[in-house]
Amino acid sequence: PNLTDLQDSHSTLQTEHSRTIGNLRDLQDSHLCLQTEHSSTTKNLIDLKDSHINLQIEHSKVTEILKDPIPWNIRGQIAEELDNWKENEKTFIKTNGAKRVLEYIKENRCVFVTASSGCGKTSLVRNVALQMQNEDYEILPVSNRKEIIKWYNPRKNMLFVVDDFCGTYTLNPTQFENWKNLMEALVDRKQSSCLCLVDYRFIRTGKCNICHSFCLVHVISDL
């Protein structure tokens, strides 16, 4: 070939080389775009997974709320009441009586705490209940037996705290028998316990015939 042919061939090769370099740059740019898209897709997938997990958690919470036999507004009232107990707890002086009741409630499903008026049995029982809360018991102050029937949950450790059991100054025998029957049913359930406050005059006058299945603790003025 002559010089002209060589020059033409060289020029053609340069053109092909430039085109090849251009195609390579296009491929590199395309690769970078794909990497960016892949990263974005991966991030979106992670976000979707996180969102799915959060939705599952929220769904579980809602399901638990719907299964909860205690209405949310009542739970709010109970939480506020327990906060008041904790606030009053700051001035409570630990006593042998509180230690005894704590030991008994761990060993028995149902404990009746009796005392004469003014001995501080309410503060004692609340102190014991708060200590049981630290041991993963759900504390539920109740004022009537229907609340225990409605709120009982076999999947939870529950401690029902009954204040002024069957009244403060009078005792209705029928009401007492209904309470006693319910307490006997609780004795057979390992997950639930019950702390009851009973005025000592009911015991002293024989008006309150506590079943032998229950633990009866009488606290005196020095607790």
UniProtKB/TrEMBL annotation:
<feature type="domain" description="Novel STAND NTPase 3">
    <location>
        <begin position="92"/>
        <end position="188"/>
    </location>
</feature>
<dbReference type="Pfam" id="PF20720">
    <property type="entry name" value="nSTAND3"/>
</dbReference>
<protein>
    <recommendedName>
        <fullName>Novel STAND NTPase 3 domain-containing protein</fullName>
    </recommendedName>
</protein>
<dbReference type="InterPro" id="IPR049050">
    <property type="entry name" value="nSTAND3"/>
</dbReference>
<dbReference type="InterPro" id="IPR027417">
    <property type="entry name" value="P-loop_NTPase"/>
</dbReference>
